[in-house]
Every structure is written in structure tokens, then in C-alpha cells.
Amino acid sequence: EGFGCKSVNACNLLVYGAGQVIPSSFKTLKPNLMYSLLVSLSSTVQYGRAILVMDKNFCTDIAGNSYTRMPNSSVYVHIDVSM
Fold first, then answer.
1. CB 3.0 to 4.6 Å from 29: which of 34, 60, 69, 73, for a disulfide?
2. Buried b / exposed e across 1-14, counting CB within 10 Å, b at 16+?
């Protein structure tokens, strides 16, 4: 129920640039409301950009119906530089 990655090896969040989604890191923080997912950025690239894109069927239910994002909803991206 709610959003999830298809498996520990695949997720419908795409990264364009020097990075990749880590599907096994997916966690439900608050069911149907808040999730956490790690994106690994390449340590060999000193500058550039990574574009996160939701795949076509990223926010759909089991029947394939699209979820409607409410006007007061938010999307947060947290960048943590850990070495």
C-alpha cells in the first residue's frame, strides 16, 4: 500500500547525472505520507548536477490510478555530504 520500490534492485525514481538510486535504502517513515530513499552521487565527479525524475507510473496505486498531489503538499530533498 502506498509508494514503494518494485524491488531492492529497482525503483521508479530516475537519476540523470553522476548518481544512482539505492532501492534497498527505501524506508516508509509515515505510511502513505513520508518516505526516505538514498541517492548515491559519484565521488569522482567534482561538480555538475544530478536531476531526479519520477518515472511515468511513479505515483500510482495497484490499479494504476494516479495520485493527485495536494496544493499544500511538499517534496523535500536533503543533501548529506558524508565522507
1. 34
2. eebebeeeeebbbe
